[in-house]
Amino acid sequence: MYEELVKEIFTRFPSVQKDGFMTGAYKPGLEAMREFNAAMGDPAGKLKVIHVAGTNGKGSVANMIASALTSAGYKTGLYTSPHLVDWRERSRINGTMIPKDYAEAFLVKWKPYFTEHNLSFFEITTGLALKWFADEKTDFAVLEVGLGGRLDSTNIVTPVVSVITSIGLDHCALLGNTLEAIAGEKAGIIKPGVPVIIGETRPETQKVFDAKADETGSPIIYAQETTPSLWERHQEILDAMDLRAPVQEKNLRTVLCTLDVILTERSEWRDLIHGIEHTAALMHFHGRWERLRKEPEVIADIGHNAHALRSNFEALEATGKPLFIVYGIMADKDLDAILPLMPRKARYIFVTPDTPRARKADDILERFLDYACGSARNDKRATTAPSVKAGVEMALREAGKDAIIYIGGSAFVVAEALQGTELE
Q: How far apart are CA 263 and CA 247, in angstroms?
């Protein structure tokens, strides 16, 4: 029955993961979520929330905070999106997914409500997480914003701290076409009197955050301008971390600043460090510069916009190793901004993940050739594969042991690689 119920909420209720942002799946506004929360007995009001927004890095930061608190002995809920393999990945306590029987009972009980009030997939999933965390009496609940902040379903909470990791140009049709406009949407999670941590300092966005914090009377901490506890050990921690993305130094600083705000006891620091260093393993967190194989080295990362891909591609080029890039992208992403960032000395295998939101691999290839070759059209570095699985297998056949195979461009590409390809 569980599988049937989950299939039904994917098909009957609009889902961004399945249908995209412009099909009614994204429902800006909080009224429906507030009413749903009230109908459930206000689980949101019973939680001690760390609320995390940002264009990039919010998933890593949310998982690192949850892992640190779990390791320090706190019962910690974690709500993130999207999922890669199993819908239950979105809701975890101490790294363990929500039980099927709890999820099934919730869906059965509230199905008439979903239908009557035409809730979105994300509103349903957010409600499930809030109710489970409250029923389990978690010490903390780390909630990752789905999109934006101001009008996101998670924004019905009053947190103990708000965290905004970074601002980049993404989802511009919904959030705005400038960094200032997007920062304004993210700043919507700043609540009266609640401290806010800003992970990245940029002139265009700092004035927006300062103005919002002044309006709400919220203490504001810019992580890049702060020396948090344990920062003298940051290189040691980074070297031991199983999250290896190039941006993790910035994320680590944001996490340590957040822990400084929410924890007054310092006796747990050894355990907190252990949790940070082993976030991927303890939280079962996939797709963030995740190494899937050693020889050849296979890396999977869900970074999907220019802001994230710039650092990823730069890190790949810096290795000096032969590069094979299995790449797919959603149709709503700014491919024009990404093409100039792509490493010039790499073999490209473009793929179309199995979702109607995806840009066709042939179209990516055409655009790549137009950019890289102009009228010559004789670049042999790039081709297409009929599926993500076929693309990864092609790269594995062609790559020598000293090469790096990078799988990315979209969470959908990474998800299919994790599910469909033998990489061990």
A: 24
Structure tokens at 296: 């050849």
3-state class of 13 per DSSP?
A: coil
Q: Per-residue DSSP letters for 81-133?
A: S--SS-GGGGEEETTEEPPHHHHHHHHHHHHHHHHHHT--HHHHHHHHHHHHH
Chain segment 354-381, per-residue pLDDT in tens = 888 899 999 999 999 988 775 445 567 8
Strand partners, 92: 78, 97
Contacts of residue 193, defined as CB under 8 A and 6 or more positions apart, other chains included, come to 216, 217, 218
Measure Cα distances from 153 to 51, 137, 177, 229, 404 in Å. Answer: 12, 21, 22, 32, 39
Distances (CA, A) of 358 to 9, 281, 361: 21, 30, 9
Q: May I ask the CATH architecture of the domain 2-283?
A: 3-Layer(aba) Sandwich (3.40)
Mean pLDDT, residues 272-276? 95
pTM of the model: 0.86
Q: What does the chain come to in residues?
A: 424
163: β partners: 52, 197
pLDDT band at 9 (very low <50, low <70, confident <90, very high): confident
Neighbours of 294 (CB within 10 A): 9
CA distances from 148 to 152, 210, 365 (A): 6, 18, 31
Q: Homologous superfamily of 290-420 in CATH?
A: Mur ligase, C-terminal domain (3.90.190.20)
Asked if residue 28 has a cis previous peptide bond (ω within 30° of 0), the answer is no
Contact of 70 with 76, CB cutoff 8 Å: yes
